[in-house]
Amino acid sequence: MKKIRVGILFGGKSAEHEVSLQSAKNVLAALDRDKYEVVLIGIDKEGKWHWNQDSINLLNENDPKLIQLSPGQQELAVVPGSDGVRIVPVHGEGDIGLIDVVFPVLHGTYGEDGTVQGLLKLANIPFVGAGVLGSAVGMDKDVMKRLLRSDGIPVADFLTFTFADRENIDYDQVTARLGSPVFVKPANMGSSVGISKAKDRAGFEAAVDDAFQYDTKIIIEEFIKGREIECSVLGNENPIASLPGEILPQADFYSYEAKYIDEKGALLEIPAKLPDSKVKEIQDLAIRTYRSLCCEGMARVDMFLKDNGEILINEINTIPGFTKISMYPKLWEVSGLPYSKLIDRLIELALERFKREQALKTKVEI
Fold it and tell me: What is the pTM for the complete model shown?
């Protein structure tokens, strides 16, 4: 049987570059080499694409803080041709051939926000995960929360500010509306990058400055006291939800360090200790959120469970982490879908969607 050529796209210009490198290592390890031929494409922090021919060539690969792409890999370009789009070396002869499906393991901006998805769609290459719209909406916390709210899905109260508003962000006015403490976040970023919990005026002003380092739009949210619950979703038209898990941060909140660097930074309760009725409610709400935001393939839905039983959606991640301490694959494993089978299913979903879209008309018959 002919092997499926899978292009793993990893790295990227995002502040989550290092997380992507860790995730890509795990996805590569989980791929069944009897089924798949792997093409490794690393994107450096300047946005250049590189062909890693035999393995993911990394420096400091066992240090999550210092891990980076090894320099000197063959640089690539995407080139349209009569037989389809090819990815070819910028210098030198030959090309890496046609790819059957791309697995983007890119977190954050320039990878999870619809940009790469748009490129792959134009190139007519199937890809794993949400499409252009679902990716863009899922990345922008402001738009995401407004859409959820309009769909009757509960979210925490929040305010949005652009860079043009920066000089008019007033601590007293914000806390009069949202209370204190508050969370300050870049609108378009993940993995808790640029997020701060502000408890006073000085901390608030520093948090605003930090968030604007990562995006030209920020959101400020009310603090929600409750359990941090996560649920993995899988599928296209008929998505299914995993058993939920619980994050028990060992610091003030579930930070970037706790997620990807410090294995002791948070305890993971997998599955979460919840009554069956609450598990069902969480799964149903996760699927509603997934559908509301036009997601496909995969996503992790993060939420808060308050003491009174109320559930609030925090956010959705359309390319969740695949590191060794990431919740998305762990939740599916405890739900009966092991890592390698999960990767198989994600690739199947990508090819199914592509086949469905190829059947659509693109010309008007006169």
Answer: 0.90
